[in-house]
Amino acid sequence: MNMRILWASTALAMAAVAPAPAAEYNSNHFFAERHSLVRGPYVEFAEKVAEATGGEITFRVFSGGSLIPAAASLQGVRDGVAQVTYHAGTYTPAELPVENLIGNMAFYNTDPFVMAMASTEFSMTNPAALEEWRRNGVVFGGGYSTSEYYMMCNTKVETLADVQGKRLRMAGGAWSRFAEHVGAVPVSIPSSEMYTGLDTGSLDCAVTPGDSLDSFSLGDVVTSMNTLAIGNYYAGFLWGYNKAFWQGLTPEQREVLFGQMAYFLAKGRVEFSADVDKAIDSAIAKGMTVYKPDAALEAALAEFVASDEAALIAAAKERGVENPEEILAEFKKVVDRWDALLEGVDRTDVEALAALAQKEIYDKLDASTYGVK
């Protein structure tokens, strides 16, 4: 059956009914189940939500793109194929211009804990962001941030000269512009295709977090890694809910989801960092060489960061965003706020991080009106 027809027919069936007691709903993620953003924030999250609601909300977890492919996850949750899904905003720049605007500020602060919290708060409170979710038929539940992006290569890449001419898998947007800035060739492919690209030689490097050495098996095809921190990724959402589903919940049920999202926002981020460390250590033990960037490569990154904000603003205006300068200024304030809030907080303490997310984000939302009005 044609996939669009399948989605449409499924969506019509699901959209016709509001949530009912003891129903099973679909949750979707295109990463494999072993990934830190799936096993906690989706698999364990589903278990905890079912337990806390007495089985009134039960999510069936689809991972690895088995229900909805990566590029269609926004459409899939909007149409009711899934009631909650992960979505990477880079796949839908036209539909999510505000989210891609802030997502491309990936070099402003590369602390993944700060960016996970800040992107969540901003996307749940900023009027332009909220209007964007409303327009797309999605209720934003919570954000995330990957760890810092590194160059993981099948050849030696240490210096600026080494990077020039190399084919780099990039996440699009600012990352692609950075590749061009240093004389490399950006290649935009889904994360699921990084392994094949490196294995066949159609890629020289994948620019991705270190956990990909394990979660995407890149350790089998990567021989070197450069530790230049090329931003991190947080555009889109870790949990985006179908609007009809969300509006059919009771305020008490939404409060349960708020609490579980606060907890797994923290736990997913802690486990992501642990997975990065473990994967890099394992790859080094198997022979991967780690290079520090030379001074010229570091200088090129600094030069790019200083000049790229104008490109972000221009791209946002082309996509119809009003006052992108003001949006970026507000986003920076939120980022700076979280930078201060997280100063001195143990980045391995899930309970402390979750309590902070609950207090500073979710407790400030009204479960009777958020995503409803």
From TrEMBL:
The keyword RNA-binding does not apply. It holds the Pfam family DctP. Residues 1-22 form the signal peptide. It comes from the Bacteria. Gene3D superfamilies: Bacterial extracellular solute-binding protein, family 7 (3.40.190.170). Keywords: Periplasm, Signal. It is found in: Periplasm. PANTHER family: BLL6794 PROTEIN (PTHR33376:SF15), PTHR33376. This is C4-dicarboxylate TRAP transporter substrate-binding protein.
